[in-house]
Amino acid sequence: MTTTTQKSIQTVTKQAVHCPNCGALAERWHYSDRTQTECGVCDYLMVTCPQTGNVIEAQAPGLYASKLQSVKSVVFDVK
Q: What does the domain layout of the chain look like in residue ranges?
């Protein structure tokens, strides 16, 4: 008796967006079962269902003045 397994091929799309938390460039990944937005600057994370828009997981740490200034210098080239 042989057992066969099927692997579905999942299409993944990567999009560059601005982080809604700090404004730096972030990545939005579109999977068939979820949409995931990640920011490496402020550690923002939002995972939503693409069909319903419901939030599956979220993490949005607060920004401190010193951190915000460093983000501004990167995003807006402010010294």
A: 13-62
